[in-house]
Amino acid sequence: MMQKRTIEIGVGVFVAAGIAALVMLAMKVSNLAAFTNQQGYEVTARFDNIGGLKERSAVTVAGVRIGRVKSIVFDDKDYEAVVTMNIESQHDRLPADTSASILTAGLLGEQYVALEPGGDEAFLKPGGDIKLTQSAIILEKMVGQFLFDKAAGGDGKKEEGAAP
Amino acid sequence: MMGWLQRLGSTSLSVFERLGRGNLFLLRILAALPSLVLRPGLVIAQLYSVGVLSMTLIVISGLNVGMVLGLQGYNTLVDFGSEESLGQLVALSLVRELGPVVAALLFAGRAGSALTAEIGLMKATEQLSGMEMMAVDPLKRVVAPRFIAGIISMPLLAAMFSAVGVLGGFFVGVGLLGVDSGAFWSQMQSKVDLYDDILNGVIKSIVFGCVAAWIAVFEGYDAVPNTEGVSRATTRTVVHTAFAVLGLDFILTALMFGDE
Question: Could you say which of A130, B10, B33, B205 is the most buried, measured as most Cβ atoms within 10 Å of its Cβ?
Fold first, then answer.
């Protein structure tokens, strides 16, 4: 009888440890915590180019995450990307002339939407539209521009030096 | 030439015959499962020998795999200046792949071979026929509890492997190599998805558990009832489980993560 008891205790420990491991994976390792405060309000913004922005990317103000990108759709009338963002409901005091830009975390990091509050007295309403947007910076374009400027600038200097 | 063809034919026939016997056997086990509800004690005793006794091996291996991942990942990531992603690397590799697969391989070696040897020896010493004589169905009394115990233990063992592995990566990465602890966890949490990664890992481990337990009990039940037959069956269990797990892992990975 004693032996049966030890076996049952052993199995109990085993099952409890397994479930504890699953719970730890769910709570500590995955993004379950981010699901809990889903309620919030939505605002949209239109960008010429969203770069590598994805659904569930962060939306930040002053570097603090206040929401996530909910959906990204392409508007084939204006050839723009319409980004719908879900902002947590406690942050409902964003000015109506808030501007949005797509930035990159670090040199190779992922892209996120940074909101810059303006000075308007009125607040952004749920379902509102952010008018002022700045597209993602595409690294290749920037490098291309830089090389082009450099080449043009370098030639100019040479000519100046050769003229007198 | 004819002899060669005949050998090929007989080999293929015996392979298909075994596959067919294995499938019929699985159906008979499934039919025997409902009777276990009346006797949960049988399953608990098997959970002890299949699960509890494998726990030490799984936990120690998980810790080591996690620590090695931490070291190796750090060395690679530090070249790109992104050692904060270490948590993400360790957690994703463990939860998606290494947890289910390595746990299943260890499970085949530790528990599967023991199941095969036990059932095979029961058959060799005619205990199974003895049960039939006493109108006890050996499938219900012997095989089904071991099968279901394997299926229950495997996801739990794989989850323990992953969880302990993440802790191992944490000890090495944060404790030894000086990765920032907050960045370690937050990078991990932002990139590991509950459904896409963790749930799929659990599904994988359940599938592997079914396959490993099925192969183990079938090889034991189908073993040639003598010493050599049992030893061959035990070897086959480990080899076939390894093949099946690795092959299925590719298919499951392609289905789950292939379209990203």
Answer: B205
* Closest CB to B95 among A13, A19, A25: A25
A138 shares contact with chain B (CB less than 8 Å): no
Q: Is residue B109 part of a domain?
A: yes
Q: What is the mean pLDDT of residues A105-119?
A: 81
Cβ-nearest to A17 among B47, B55, B80: B55
Domain range holding A13?
1-36
Residue B128 domain-assigned (yes or no): yes
The number of domains in chain A is 2
Q: Are residues A25 and A47 in the same domain?
A: no
What does the pLDDT average to over B242-255?
92
For B67-108, the pLDDT digits (tens) are: 999 999 999 988 887 878 888 899 999 998 999 999 999 999
Whole-angstrom CA distances from B117 to A8, A84, B51, B130 are: 24, 60, 17, 18
- ipTM (interface predicted TM): 0.76
Chain A residues whose beta carbon lies within 8 Å of the beta carbon of residue B42: none
Are A3 and A31 in the same domain? yes
Say whether A7 and B44 touch across the interface (CB within 8 A): yes
